[in-house]
Amino acid sequence: xxxxxxxxxxxxxxxxxxxxxxGSTKVVASMGHIRDLPKSKLxxxxxxxxxxxxxxxxxxxxxxxxxxxxxxxxKKVYLATDPDxxxxxxxxxxxxxxxxDKNKITRVTFNEITKTAVQKAMKNARDIxxxxxxxxxxxxxxxxxVGYKISPLxxxxxxxxxxAGRVQSVAVKLIVDRENEIENFIPQExxxxxxxxxxxxxxxxxxxxxxxxNGKKQxxxxxxxxxxxxxxxxGAKYIITEIKKGEKKRTxxxxxxxxxxxxxxxxKLGFTLKRTMATAQILYEGVRIPERGTVGxxxxxxxxxxxxxxxxxxxxxxxxxxxYGGEYYENRYYKTSKDAQDAHxxxxxxxxxxxxxxxxxxxxxxxxxxxxxxYNRFMxxxxxxxxxxxxxxxxxxxxxxxxxxxxxxxFKGFMTLYVEGTxxxxxxxxxxxxxxxxxxxxxxxxxxxxxxxxxPPARYTEASLVKxxxxxxxxRPSTYSxxxxxxxxxxxxxxxxxxxxxxxxxxxxxKLLTENFSEIINVEFTAEIExxxxxxxxxxxxxxxxxxxxxxxxxKELEEAEKNLEHVKIEDEVxxxxxxxxxxxxxxxxxxxxxxxxxxxxxxxxxxxxxxxxIDEPCPKCGGKVQVRKTKRRKNYYICENNPKTCDFxxxxxxxxxxxxxxxxxxxxxxxxxxxxxxKKATKTTTTKRKTKTSNSK
Length: 698
Known about the structure:
Elements: E1 4-8, H1 11-18, E2 25-29, E3 35-36, E4 44-45, E5 51-52, E6 55-56, H2 61-73, E7 76-79, H3 85-98, E8 105-107, H4 115-123, H5 130-157, H6 168-184, E9 189-198, E10 205-213, E11 216-217, H7 223-232, E12 238-250, H8 258-269, H9 273-285, E13 287-289, E14 293-295, H10 310-323, H11 365-381, E15 386-397, E16 400-411, E17 441-453, H12 462-471, H13 480-489, E18 493-496, E19 499-502, H14 504-516, H15 523-537, H16 543-565, E20 574-578, E21 585-591, E22 594-598, E23 608-610, E24 613-615, E25 626-630, E26 636-640, E27 650-651, H17 668-697
Parallel strand pairs: 1-2, 1-7, 7-8
Antiparallel strand pairs: 3-6, 4-5, 9-10, 9-17, 10-11, 10-16, 12-15, 12-17, 13-14, 15-16, 18-19, 20-21, 21-22, 22-23, 24-25, 25-26, 26-27
Helix pairs in contact: 3-5, 5-15, 5-16, 6-13, 6-14, 8-11, 8-12, 9-11
């Protein structure tokens, strides 16, 4: 019989915690949620003040029996689920299922799974925070009402299987609105004039850009304006009139929050949000490391705070001074956003002395890459600024001004370890200009007028959409990944070379929702609701009161929408492809795997066919047409239309104009090579299992 029973969500977390607690302590896993709303119906008693009708999750009967048995045999039960609203709700549901004396059940939380943190948490056990539970219930109930009440309208008017969601629909709206901006964008012409100038003593050439006339900035919009300036400076002397020298500092980025980690992992590692969060979850819960056992490598990964504990600062200081020297260390504090909940620290390594390269052979490639990103970002956040020498030069050509700027990295500081990525186009870093003097005359080597056009805003990527959701106060750290995963899985949005494009289905659904539920499917309402959830979590608002105030206007909007849509029929888009069976023009439909062609004469004519997309480049082997196809994971590949009959051409990459195709090696040799690689991997896995088994038996 165990004196203490600790219940966590996952076996990995259980294994990590077990080694810190000796004696008669048992640690078991609930495998996530135990109770939830039923999937088959609304599950909320509207007439009985929105009471949720929770049920035990199907398939968890044996686990529930086992948990009850363990709880009955223990003197004290500690609910150690994740330290956020979702974790608090899981703990509350567990307490309801276990049906134990409330004095026997207690709640513990830890931001990191280390011996110190776990032991400290056990000493500071508390009651379940019902305010956090209510905030989670409010979100779950509100989202269920919106989803289950609006989705049937989409089934009637568009197709079955679609879903609407309070936050996911706003995310789709942002993507559709951005696409409309791009489609309606009218490029504006503008010009630059670049002067390549040579300094006499060193013969070094550098580039200056046209600025204006007599110290006043002038923008150039037409070729006529440029020609006028070129005429007026023909044969002019280029004289340096002003030199400004200075120093510029670049400060490090703060430790990761959930959203900044997702953004950087997307930019630097090419990870999807789902992949990032799954990997971070394992790093938090624990991985097995030789000589140290199962170790939780990072702090809790759902946070919007950049706060760092003093112990972590001290550990970072020691590592930085030991590896780089005292001149690289700076004790830094970062301001957390006023809207941040600040319940947890920023994301950081739990043990500063575990360098990424120390664990490279003990973890997966994804785990190593993400841990290295988190480790380096945290260490860099406690390092000195990078320092640049800067020079700004003004050059006169008759009455016209040209300017040149240069900078030179004098002290790398934090950039030795880490530089933050960006979604914007990176401008080439300026080099240092040659040594110049005021009143010095420069030799003109070339004048280069360049025409350019303004560009439309960029489409969202997963990283930039997360940034936009956070800036607009839509959703919270724990919701970004499921939001984007859902809209991709529903085919409202598709990813093309990392960019998020709305599909025709996404546009149709967005139009229907925004026209009929404008009060709900909008950015301001969604942000306002998030703030109300925060107030419930702080005990400032009662959750059912919030649902009551929402439901009245929503019910009226729903009734109005049903009336408006009663006689509306969303017509299928007609293609230019004739049905070879009955002669009707085929229409576009949406299925599980995207868009396809179908005969509008269904059910008399059930003819369907895939949409075949071709590209302009011919097949390099036989000259035939090349089709674009998608893998199960929606990745494009290119294949000859004659494959496999008379041609075996296939490629992952579409060539740019003038480039050669990259041809996939699909010979018998490559097939044999793939078999060999598979065998090697299987052998390696078996060997690893044997080693682990031997190690455990020892």
